[in-house]
From TrEMBL:
Gene from which the chain derives: Gpr143
Alphabetical GO biological process terms: melanosome organization; regulation of calcium-mediated signaling
Species the sequence originates in: Onychorhynchus coronatus
Localization in the cell: Apical cell membrane; Lysosome membrane; Melanosome membrane
Major subcellular location class: membrane
The name this protein goes by in its record: G-protein coupled receptor 143
GO molecular function terms listed in the Swiss-Prot or TrEMBL record: dopamine binding; L-DOPA binding; L-DOPA receptor activity; L-tyrosine binding
Compositional bias (Polar residues): 358-377
Function: Receptor for tyrosine, L-DOPA and dopamine. After binding to L-DOPA, stimulates Ca(2+) influx into the cytoplasm, increases secretion of the neurotrophic factor SERPINF1 and relocalizes beta arrestin at the plasma membrane; this ligand-dependent signaling occurs through a G(q)-mediated pathway in melanocytic cells. Its activity is mediated by G proteins which activate the phosphoinositide signaling pathway. Also plays a role as an intracellular G protein-coupled receptor involved in melanosome biogenesis, organization and transport.
Amino acid sequence: MASPRLETYCCPNRDAATQLVMNFQPEVFCGVCIGSASISLMLTILQLLPKKGQSPRKMPKASSSSTILLLISICDILGGLGMIFRSSVWLGFPGFIANISVVNGTDVWPSTFCVGSAMWIQLLYSAGFWWLFCYAVDSYLVVRRSAGLSTIVLYHMMTWGLAVLLCVEGIALLYYPSISSCENGLEHAIPHYVTTYVPLLLVLVVNPILFRRTVSAVASLLKGRQGIYTENERRLGTEIQMRFFKIMLVFVICWSSNIINETLLFYLEMQPDINEVPLKNIRSAALITWIIMGVLNPMQGFLFTLAFYGWTGWKVDLKGRKREIPWESMSSSTAGENAYPSPVNYQSNIHDSKKISTTDSQQTDEAISMLSEGNTSSDERLTRSSPIYQGW
């Protein structure tokens, strides 16, 4: 799983709270991490592969939302691979890992592996948090018609730049002046924990606000498309709202245990002796949430694909045949039919007015299609209710 305690454990003079959780049934904990990450990895890849009898998930070219969803899944896959590799080494080479605890040891490889694997996991999941934040921003900008293909470059710069900056800064402060003398006080640990949990808390606090504003903007778009708010529009708006709700629900389920665990461990660190009898229940709660983290953190990748696309099925189409999206073909045919100018001036004006309205409606349909991507029923209702489909 992804916890700043992984980096803290690399310090030979680690604090007692970190020692407590890292030494609690390490074989069982590593086995849980390997099992959970492996299952999530296989199911995530299965979800992303094209399926027989289904149209590929495709977005309008001006949108970066589909790219962001794919990058979130890639971050989860790579983070899961890091967990599997790290836990496998811990299980397979216990003597190699034991050298981490040697303060004046000459073998630097155990500490290098510890720091490197922990940073890999932390960096990938932190980048996933930033990409999830970018998805909320992009969804809001899409319905405001302020997003486009060029914004993905800005998202890349912000996501990878902030993820690397915060990760390197936190590690540098934790291991200053050297890894053999790190974790001598909270002035080293607290900045590391802050830089780790900033993107997580940002998603928890800001994303619901952006999603709520996006849903309100979607309702306005649907009402303004034809001047009425039919049952189809109401259902489509509800499905988009449910999709955002599922995304946040998965995020809360997978990462709330990390916040609880870190709060409990910080409380234990403040005590003169964490082994006191009155602290037994707090120690037990910290150990339970530690195991829960090992199960839920790696499962985020698969659960996110369910929230993004729903269950896509087992039948994989390895040929990857390209299929045409219905609204794209109808848009092309409509553009072809409207390409002939009217011989009368006032008819030409009417035609231009209709063309502008059709373009606006198409842009609205594209924006809604981006937000409801992966939902076949939503796409079908959107296409049928579109003025393009109706031959407007």
